[in-house]
Specification:
- The complex is a heterodimer.
- In chain A, a hairpin with a 5-residue loop joins strand 9 and strand 10.
- By secondary structure, chain A is an alpha/beta fold.
- Chain A has four domains: 92 residues, Glutaredoxin, CATH 3.40.30.10; 203 residues, 3-Layer(aba) Sandwich (Rossmann fold); 84 residues, Roll (Ubiquitin-like (UB roll)), CATH 3.10.20.600; 89 residues, de novo design (two linked rop proteins).
- By secondary structure, chain B is an alpha+beta fold.
- Chain B folds into two domains: 75 residues, Ubiquitin-like (UB roll) (Roll), CATH 3.10.20; 130 residues, Alpha-Beta Plaits.
- Chain B has six helices and ten strands, in the order E-E-H-E-E-E-H-H-E-E-H-E-E-H-E-H.
- In chain B, the strands form three sheets. Chain B has a five-stranded mixed β-sheet with strand order 2-1-5-3-4, with helices on one face. A three-stranded antiparallel β-sheet of chain B has the order 6-7-10.
- In chain B, a hairpin with a 5-residue loop joins strand 6 and strand 7.
- The chains are: A alpha/beta, B alpha+beta.
- Chains A and B meet through helix 19, helix 20 and helix 21 of A and helix 2 of B.
- The site of FE2/S2 (inorganic) cluster (FES) has 12 residues of chain B, from loops.
C-alpha cells in the first residue's frame, strides 16, 4: 500500500457513493441487531431491488447510533431523516417516500438533547460507516493517521502528542496513557507487545463492544500507531467470547487490513511491521485485570499476580507490554490526526476528552452516549437521558459497576471527571451508568454487586475469596430483616479488610458499592435491621 | 558514575537492616530474626502473594505490601507487627477457618499444622464469622496418599512444587471463588492420574493436614521439608 493507493481507494469509494441519489443506513449495532435490524435491512434491500432502484438507492448496514432502546434505527440520507422502531413491513413505505417526504409515524426527532448534547470523538463513525467494509473507513480518512505517524513522526513525537493530549486510560484505572507508553518505550528488551483490552466484564456495560462492532478499523489503526510508538511488532486484541459480532467484524477487519498492506510487513513501505491476533476470553470478569489477562493469553489460568513488576516492564511472555483499553485505543487516531493540544481543549483540567457511557436503569433514553468530560450528572440524566420515567423521583446514579459507587441527588450538579467522582466515593470506571429512582432499594443494589464480585472472584487470595462471601451473607441478612447492629459492624470491618488486603483490583474495590451506599443511604440499612441500636 | 549499589539499607520495625538488593522484605527481616507470618510462601518455590498474611506497612505509603514478593528498597521503613496488621491477619485466618471444615481434634496434622500455629501466634480465640460448612470430599484413591479437601487452604504449594520442582504438573486449580479447589490431572481421582510420580513432595509441602500419607492417624503426620532447601541449593550451584 502506498499513500497514493490509499487515496485512490477513498476516491473510488466517494465516487461510487455519489452515484446514488439516496442512502438508507440501517443500524446493525448490538441493540438494533437484537431487535432484528438485519431483517429490516434485508426487507429494504428487497424492496429497492423489487422496484429496480439498485442504482438509485444504496442500503447500508452501519454501527450503533446510541439510542438503542428505540431500535431498529434507520437513517435516510445523511442526517435528513431518522426512523425508530422500524419493522420489515415498513420497508415499502420508506422506499416509496424517499423522494417525496417521510414516514411520520416512524420519525425520531433528531434535535433531541440526546443527540445534540453529545460530543462524538470515539464514536464519530458509529452509525455512519459500514463496519464490515474497509473502504467505508478509508473514505472517512481512515489509516491516514497511521500514514502520518510512520512517515512524518518519530516514536518519541507520537508519545509526546499522546502526553500533551492528557488522555487517561478508559479501562477503569485512569492511568495517564502517554506515561504508560513512555514506560514501555524505554523498557529494556527487543521484543515488545501491545494488547488491546476488550474483555469488558462490568454488568450492563457495552461501550467497548459497541466500538469494536461499529468501527473495528479504528482499533487496528490505533494499535498500529501505539505499536510504532512503543516499539512493538505484535499485538493482541483480547475480546470476550460473548461478543461474537465484535469478533466477526474484527476478524474481517484484520483480513481486509492485511490484504491492503495496512497490517503486516513493511507497512506503507516503511521498516515498520505489525501483526494483530485476536484472543478470546472465556467470560471471567477477572480476566480483564491486566496480569490475569496476560496469563490467559499465555494459556494459563487467568489469575492476577502481584505488581510490581508491571506489564510495561514484565508483561506477555516476560516482555515489556503495553496494555490499553479499547476506548483508550479508539482515542489515538483522532489525537494523532488533530494533535494532542486539540484533545486537551476538551474536558476539564485533569480529565481530557470525552467518555462513552452505557446509560441504563430508570431513565427515559437508555443507550450509549459520548459526552465531554466535565459535563454534569444532571445534564446526563435529565437532558440526554430525558429524565426519570413514570413521574418518579431520581434517587442515585451508580457509576463504575461492581468497583464503583452510588452518587445521591445532592451531587447531581457535580462534574463528571476522574477526581470529582473519586471524591464522592465512586469512580469513573469503564463507563457503566445506572440510574435509580425512589423505588430502588440501596441494600439490594449493594447486595447485587457483592454477589457479582463473590462469583467472579478468582479465588486466589483469601480476603476476596472468603471475604466477599461473608459480606454477601451479611447483606442478605440485612435485606431479609434478620441482621443485628453487630452484623452491620462486622460488615464494615470486612469492607475495610477486603479493601486493604486483597491482591487485585477486583477484591480491593468490591466493598465500594457497600461503602458508598452506607455513606449516603445508611438509614436504609438501619431501617432494615432486626434490632435497632440501643434496643 | 558510581558503581551500582549491591546492598540496600532499610529499617524494619525501627531497626537498621542491610540487605542484598534482590532480597524481599521477608528475607531481609528473617536475616535479622524478625518473623513475618506467612502461609502460601515456601522457600524454594515461586511466590504468588496469595494468602496476604505477610502484608506489611511501608512508611509514606497508604498501601500494604506483601513482604514475600516485595523487594527491599534503599531507605524503606517497614513495620511488620502493628496492631492494624495483627487485626487484619487474625481476620484473614478467621475467614480461612470459617471457609472449610477445619476440625483439629481429628486431624492428622494436629499439633504440627501451620494454620493452627498461626492461629496460636496471632492470639485467635474464636471465629467471628459464620462457618460455611461446605460439603467437601476426601480422595483416597491414591495408593499411598490422601487429599482431604476439608482441610485445604488453597495455598497452592502442592501445585507449585509439583510443577516447579518435580516437573510433573499433576496438580492444578479449578473453579472460581469459593468453588476453587485443587485437582489432579483433568479433575479425576488422584489414583487414576497418569502424570503423578508418587514422589510425595506435595504431601510434605502442604501446611495443613489436607495432604497426608495413608496409615497416619490423628496428630501423627509430620511434614519433612528438608528436600526443598537442598534441591534449591543444588540447582543454584549448578546454574
Ligand atoms: C477485576 C478487574 C477487571 C478489569 N476489567 C477490565 C476490562 O474489562 N477492560 C479493560 O480495559 N480494563 C479492565 N481492567 C483494567 C485493566 O487491568 C487495565 O488497567 C486496563 O486495561 C489498562 O488500560 P487503560 O490504561 O487504557 O485503561 C480491569 C481491572 C480489574 C482489577
Ligand atoms: S482480589 Fe479476588 S480476584 Fe483478585 S486475586 Fe484476590 S481472589 Fe483473585
Ligand atoms: S506469604 Fe506472602 S502472601 Fe502468602
Amino acid at each position: 500500500m502506498t499513500p497514493e493507493e490509499l487515496d485512490e481507494i477513498a476516491t473510488i469509494e466517494r465516487e461510487t457513493t455519489h452515484q446514488f441519489q439516496h442512502r438508507v443506513s440501517v443500524c446493525v449495532g448490538t441493540g438494533c441487531h437484537s431487535a432484528h435490524s438485519e431483517e429490516v435491512k434485508t426487507a429494504l434491500e428487497k424492496e429497492v431491488s423489487r422496484q429496480g432502484l439498485e442504482n438509485w438507492c444504496q442500503v447500508k448496514g452501519v454501527g450503533c447510533r446510541g439510542l438503542c432502546a428505540s431500535g431498529p434505527m434507520v437513517e435516510v440520507d445523511t442526517a435528513a431523516r431518522l426512523y425508530q422502531g422500524v419493522t420489515p413491513e415498513d420497508a415499502v413505505e420508506i422506499v416509496e417516500t424517499l423522494d417525496t417526504g417521510s414516514v411520520p409515524r416512524l420519525e425520531c426527532p433528531t434535535d433531541l438533547p440526546f443527540f445534540t448534547r453529545q460530543t462524538k470523538i470515539v464514536l464519530e463513525h458509529a452509525g455512519r460507516i459500514d463496519p464490515e467494509r474497509i473502504e467505508d473507513y478509508i473514505v472517512m480518512g481512515g489509516y491516514t493517521a497511521l500514514l502520518k505517524t510512520l512517515t512524518e513522526m518519530t516514536p518519541a513525537e507520537v508519545i509526546e502528542q499522546i502526553t500533551t493530549s492528557g488522555l487517561r486510560g478508559r479501562g477503569g484505572g485512569g492511568y495517564p496513557t502517554g506515561l504508560k507508553w513512555r514506560t514501555v518505550a524505554i523498557a529494556a528488551g527487543t521484543q515488545k507487545y501491545i494488547i488491546c483490552n476488550g474483555d469488558e466484564g462490568d454488568p450492563g456495560a457495552f461501550m467497548d463492544r459497541s466500538i469494536l462492532e461499529s468501527d473495528p478499523h479504528r482499533i487496528l489503526e490505533g494499535m498500529a500507531i501505539a505499536a510504532y510508538a512503543v516499539g512493538a511488532d505484535e499485538g493482541y486484541v483480547y475480546v470476550r467470547a460473548e461478543y461474537p459480532l465484535a469478533i466477526k467484524r474484527l476478524r474481517a477487519a484484520i483480513i481486509q487490513a492485511e490484504r491492503n498492506g495496512l497490517l503486516g510487513k513493511n507497512i506503507f513501505g516503511t521498516p515498520f511491521s505489525f501483526h494483530v491476533e485476536i484472543r478470546l476470553g472465556a467470560g471471567a470478569f477477572v480476566c480483564g485485570e491486566e496480569t490475569a489477562l496476560i496469563a490467559s493469553i499465555e494459556g494459563r489460568r487467568g489469575t492476577p499476580r502481584p505488581r510490581p513488576p508491571y506489564p510495561a516492564e514484565f508483561g506477555l511472555w516476560g516482555c515489556p507490554t503495553l496494555i490499553n483499553n479499547v476506548e483508550t485505543i479508539a482515542n489515538i487516531v483522532p489525537i494523532v490526526r488533530n494533535g494532542g493540544a486539540w484533545f486537551a481543549e476538551i474536558g476539564t483540567e485533569n480529565s481530557k476528552g470525552t467518555k462513552v457511557f452505557a446509560l441504563t436503569g430508570r431513565v427515559n433514553h437508555t443507550g450509549l452516549i459520548e459526552v465531554p468530560m466535565g459535563i454534569t450528572l444532571r445534564e446526563i440524566v435529565f437532558d440526554i437521558g430525558g429524565g426519570i420515567p413514570d413521574g418518579r423521583k431520581f434517587k442515585a446514579v451508580q457509576t463504575g459497576g461492581p468497583s464503583g459507587g452510588c452518587i445521591p441527588e445532592e451531587y447531581l450538579d457535580m462534574t463528571v471527571d476522574y477526581a470529582s467522582l473519586a471524591q464522592v466515593g465512586s469512580i469513573m470506571g469503564s463507563g457503566g451508568m445506572i440510574i435509580m429512582d425512589e423505588t430502588s432499594n440501596m441494600v439490594d443494589v449493594a447486595r447485587y454487586f457483592m454477589e457479582f464480585c463473590m462469583t467472579e472472584s478468582c479465588g486466589k487470595c483469601i480476603p476476596c475469596r472468603v471475604g466477599t462471601v461473608q459480606m454477601h451473607e451479611l447483606l442478605c441478612r440485612i435485606a431479609a430483616g434478620q441482621a443485628t447492629p453487630h452484623d452491620l459492624e462486622l460488615l464494615e470491618e470486612l469492607c475495610d479488610l477486603v479493601k486493604q488486603t486483597s491482591l487485585c483490583g477486583l477484591g480491593q474495590s468490591s466493598p465500594n458499592p457497600v461503602l458508598s451506599t452506607l455513606r449516603y443511604f445508611r438509614n436504609e440499612y438501619m431501617d432494615q435491621l432486626a434490632a435497632k441500636p440501643g434496643e | 558514575m558510581a558503581p551500582p549499589t549491591r546492598v540496600k539499607t532499610l529499617k524494619i520495625n525501627n531497626r537498621d537492616v542491610g540487605a542484598r538488593q534482590d532480597e524481599t522484605i521477608l528475607e531481609a527481616a528473617a536475616d535479622v530474626g524478625i518473623t513475618i507470618p506467612t502461609l502460601c510462601q515456601l522457600d524454594g518455590l515461586s511466590n504468588g502473594g496469595a494468602c496476604r498474611l505477610c502484608l506489611v506497612e511501608v512508611k509514606g505509603s497508604s498501601r500494604l505490601y506483601p513482604a514475600c514478593v516485595t523487594r527491599v528498597e534503599e531507605g524503606m521503613e517497614v513495620l511488620t507487627n502493628t496492631e492494624r496488621l495483627t487485626n487484619y491477619r487474625r481476620m484473614i485466618l478467621e475467614l480461612l477457618f470459617a471457609e472449610r471444615n477445619h476440625i483439629c481434634a481429628v486431624c492428622v496434622s494436629n499439633g504440627h499444622c501451620e494454620l493452627q500455629t498461626l492461629a496460636q501466634d496471632l492470639g485467635m480465640t474464636h471465629v467471628h464469622f459464620p462457618y460455611r460448612h461446605p460439603h467437601m470430599v476426601v480422595d483416597a484413591s491414591h495408593e499411598r496418599f490422601v487429599i482431604d479437601h476439608n482441610r485445604c487452604v488453597l495455598c497452592t504449594r502442592c501445585v507449585r512444587v509439583c510443577d516447579e520442582v518435580e516437573g510433573a504438573h499433576t496438580w492444578d486449580v479449578m473453579g472460581r471463588g469459593m468453588d476453587a479447589r485443587v485437582i489432579t490431572d483433568l479433575s479425576q481421582p488422584w489414583g487414576t492420574s497418569d502424570t503423578c510420580t508418587s514422589c510425595g513432595k506435595c504431601v510434605h509441602v502442604c501446611p495443613t493436614g489436607a495432604l497426608f500419607e495413608k496409615g497416619k492417624s490423628v496428630a501423627e503426620m509430620l511434614k519433612k521439608r528438608q528436600f526443598l532447601p537442598y534441591l534449591k541449593l543444588m540447582r543454584e550451584e549448578r546454574s
